[in-house]
């Protein structure tokens, strides 16, 4: 089911839709259907241009990223910090910090900052390896240890493939105790809802913000704008999927 979900979703993101519609337009043009081919070409380029336009992509992402503010902790402090997994590539030819994706780096750094700001906390890393021989949880923990975190204060959950499985796994550890949840700001709405659905007392600590300031209208479409739209699509599709499954 997990692999099927990934396969289907890969075809309904902004850039794949652009490629599919462009390919279909070329096919129609080859078959002599110039009118429909022209309509599809116009749609394809309008679609990718709008979704690459930074102010528009910000409108898509802001409702997700603004749902939770920067975390403010108050005594008594929670014992556990859970950093959700993302991606990495194991390689002996590059530094450890470069093996992690930018999203993973942001999440791990936020987890470490929270860990070091209040003594006595435990860091939980989760995430499977995907096609990599090393799990994302273990790779993230390696960076945390390299940056000064005591290995005795780290718990790794290497089997969880998605957010729902991460919630189920960590529930067995924290029980009814409060948990600081660290993930990307865009992902926090879905992650927090899933964790709360599983009976976990969550304190949201969003990081990895992609919309950091107000965009001016006088901008050109860019890869950064498209990345934000892709991120928004990923989360809205994820929310829809969880609702269809009854997980939210």
TrEMBL record:
Q: Does the keyword field hold Transmembrane?
A: yes
Domain DUF218, residue spans? 80-238
**Keyword Isomerase on this protein?**
no
Entry's Gene Ontology cellular component terms:
plasma membrane
Q: What GO biological process terms does the UniProt entry carry, in alphabetical order?
A: Gram-negative-bacterium-type cell wall biogenesis; peptidoglycan metabolic process
Q: Which UniProt keywords apply?
A: Membrane, Transmembrane, Transmembrane helix
CDD domains (alphabetical): YdcF-like
Gene3D superfamilies linked to this entry: HUPs
Which residue spans traverse the membrane?
A: 12-29, 41-61
The protein here is known as DUF218 domain-containing protein
């Amino acid at each position: 089911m997990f692999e099927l979900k990934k396969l289907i979703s890969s075809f309904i993101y902004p850039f794949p839709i652009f490629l599919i519609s462009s390919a279909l337009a070329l096919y129609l043009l080859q078959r002599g259907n110039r009118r429909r081919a022209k309509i599809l070409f116009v749609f394809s380029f309008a679609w990718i241009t709008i979704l690459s336009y930074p102010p528009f992509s910000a409108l898509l992402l802001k409702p997700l990223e603004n749902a939770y503010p920067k975390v403010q902790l108050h005594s008594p402090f929670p014992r556990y910090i859970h950093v959700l997994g993302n991606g990495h590539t194991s390689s002996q030819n590059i530094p450890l910090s470069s093996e992690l994706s930018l999203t993973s780096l942001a999440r791990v750094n936020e987890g470490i900052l929270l860990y070091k700001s209040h003594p006595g906390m435990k860091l939980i890393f989760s995430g499977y390896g995907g096609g990599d021989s090393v799990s994302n949880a273990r790779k993230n923990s390696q960076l945390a240890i390299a940056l000064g975190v005591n290995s005795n204060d780290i718990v790794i959950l290497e089997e969880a493939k998605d957010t729902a499985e991460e919630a189920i796994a960590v529930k067995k550890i924290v029980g009814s105790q409060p948990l600081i949840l660290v993930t990307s700001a865009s992902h926090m709405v879905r992650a927090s809802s899933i964790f709360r659905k599983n009976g976990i007392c969550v304190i949201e600590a969003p990081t990895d913000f992609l919309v950091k300031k107000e965009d001016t209208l006088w901008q050109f479409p860019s890869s950064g704008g498209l990345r934000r739209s892709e991120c928004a699509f990923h989360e809205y599709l994820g929310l829809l999927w969880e609702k269809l499954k009854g997980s939210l």
